[in-house]
Every structure is written in C-alpha cells, then in structure tokens.
C-alpha cells in the first residue's frame, strides 16, 4: 500500500488537489496502522460477459457497502438530533414544541420541529404531568358560587425535602372560583411566613380577598393571623385538618403539585424549588 503512504505524506493531495474521498482514506490509513490489511485491485465496470467470480463478488460487496453506509449515516444523524432535542426539552424545563425550539435556537442549536415533537411525545415527565392535570376540578360548587375572582382562597402547607437554602415547606394558595394556584416556599411553616406568602402572592397580585379558609393548625390559627386578617377586612374560616369536604380544593392541588414536582425531578423531589414555577 505504498500509494496510501504517499497520499498521507502529501497531506491527502495529488497534484495540489485533494484526493477523492480523502476522509475515508484517512480512516483506512488509521486502521491499517494497527491491523494487517491486504488490498487487491479489481477492475470495475466490466461487462457481465467478461466478469469472473472476483468481479461479481466485488460488485456485490460494493452494493452492500453503499446500503449499509447510507443506513448507518442516516441512523446516527437521526439519533444525534433526537439526543439534542431531548437535552433541549429537559434543560428548558419541559416546555412545549415551539418554546423548546426557540430555547434551542437562542443557544445556537438548530433542531427540527419533527424531532422536538417526537421527544415531547415520548417524554415520560410530560406524560405524568398531563395525566395529573386530567383530574377534573370541582369549581363553582356550593358556597363558592357567590364569590367573584380573587375574593375567596383556601391555603395550606405541604412538606418537601429540605433544600440547600433550608426551605422545606410550600405555602399553597388556591383561588376558589377558578382553581388558580399560587405557591410560596419557606424554611418553616409559621404565621409570619403565612402572612408574607399571602401578601406577596395573593394581595399584591389578585387584590385583598374577602374570605380565606385553612385548617386550624398553629401556623394558621393564632393571634398574629387573627390581627392581620381583621386589619385587612378578611374573614378567616377554620376547618378540621385533612377534612376533604371542607378543604377539597387545596388538598387536590397539593396532590397535583407533588405529582408534578416529582415528575419534573425525574421520579424524585430533587431540585423541587427550581421546578416550582413550572409545576404551579
């Protein structure tokens, strides 16, 4: 294979021009440095009447090689794009098709809509979230029908693994007429944190409510909460903890929120605070 050695010494050029299929010949040169290889020249384009067994075998191998190389190239290209699409979908927070496409494009990654659609269709996290959201809400029933948007809320706390910032609880606040959910992560379930969460997530965003419902645990039922509610003209109503008929809305949202946080965490509550906005 003296000619292969000469091509390599000439930087894969002949007469000042790159040789045909230089990339493939470079690969062959690399391989033959480590393996014993024998090469024999077989004339191509021989009429069938003059072709011997060697020519026919060469033609058969040539056809097979073209098919296999084409198949392999397309397969790897497709798998590579799906890998990038899956990365973009995960890293962007499991957004929809168009949002994932824009997120990737803004970072210099060109993806096809088809690859993104396939990844989203196969995404177990998105499937879990969709399944959780199929739970039919029970708004507009009974005592809530007389209230306008933002006038009545149910509140509660859920407990999650402690974050590096020391946060372990989430104050959940559900608007009674629509089921709109607000959340506020805190290190401790206290009356002061309850008031801070309500002021930041409810009063500043939705206006002062007429009615708030909660259970009668100490972070809700205490003098600090009573004074704050009275000063703001809010009727605070207490019910028995875990009493489903009374706390139905917030309890359903608590279960849904945990399901979505676990799905976004890949089956655990890892980094739940980072996923809170997405899950809300």
List keywords for this structure.
280 residues, alpha/beta, Nucleotidyltransferase, domain 5, two-stranded antiparallel ribbon, rod-shaped
Characterization of the model:
With 280 residues, the protein is of the alpha/beta class. The chain folds into three domains: 2-32, no CATH class; 53-122, no CATH class; 142-279, Nucleotidyltransferase, domain 5 (2-Layer Sandwich), CATH 3.30.420.10. It has ten helices and seven strands. The radius of gyration is 33 Å and the shape is rod-shaped.
CATH architecture of the largest domain: 2-Layer Sandwich
Give the averaged pLDDT, no decimals. Answer: 77
Q: What's the β-strand tally?
A: 7
Q: Let me know the largest β-sheet.
A: 5 strands, mixed
Euclidean distance between termini CA atoms = 67 Å
* Annotated CATH topology of the largest domain: Nucleotidyltransferase, domain 5
Helix-strand makeup class: alpha/beta
Range of helix content = 40-55%
H and E order? HEEHHHHHEEEHEHEHH
Q: So what's the overall shape?
A: rod-shaped
Would you state the CATH class of the largest domain? Alpha Beta
